[in-house]
Amino acid sequence: MYLCKSFVLSLLISFTFASVQVSAQVKEQSFPRIVEKNGRHALLVDGQPFFILGGQAHNSSAWPGMMPQVWSAIEAMHANTLEVPIYWSR
Questions:
Q1: Taking a C-beta distance cutoff of 8 angstroms, is the pair 70, 58 a contact?
Q2: By the 8 A CB rule, do 32 and 60 touch?
Q3: Which residue of 12, 21, 58, 81 pairs with 54 in a disulfide if CB–CB is 3.0 to 4.6 A?
């Protein structure tokens, strides 16, 4: 009986470590990254190339009161990325 309990316990520990390792690999793979192949670079998001259709908020439009207008403009452009300056004083 003791042998059976220790066997079950060791299996449980093995499955726990295996599931932690698999979930860590999945999280690592889904993290956006830049890859290089044959001298070309690509941004991968969720394992797929990500084509940036971006807009930029200018210095005066990055203030919180202006952001609703910026979001409207980005939505109208069908952009998927927004570059906003962030000031150290803020």
A1: no
A2: no
A3: 81
